[in-house]
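Support request, please re-run this one:
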Amino acid sequence: RIYNAFLPLLDIEKDADGTQFWPTSHRSAQLQPSLPPPTCPPVGATVAPACPAAGLVIADYRTMHRGLANSGRERQIAYVVIGVGEGARDNSNFSPTAIRDASPRVLEQLPFWDDY
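Re-run finished. Output below.
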């Protein structure tokens, strides 16, 4: 399993300038991970939860999400990706094909992808 952890350094109000999530979008078919399943609610059903400064929002990594436009203030958030268990890999943002095809110079900068 892979999780996203968001730790805001400022208070985030509901539906303001935090992170917006599309509930149940993580249930995508394995063959089309970039598409939501037919049972997923419409995109208008997205949620952007409130979170106090130093609070924590954790979501399944596969859940479609985006940062909302900040309203002129610094976006001060710590964003962490957490892999739990053997074989936890981000194949959505970093496909094995793209990494395998990277130049040797780029691969030197990515030692943590040795096993691809």
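The CA atoms of residues 99 and 116 lie 7 Å apart. The mean pLDDT is 74.
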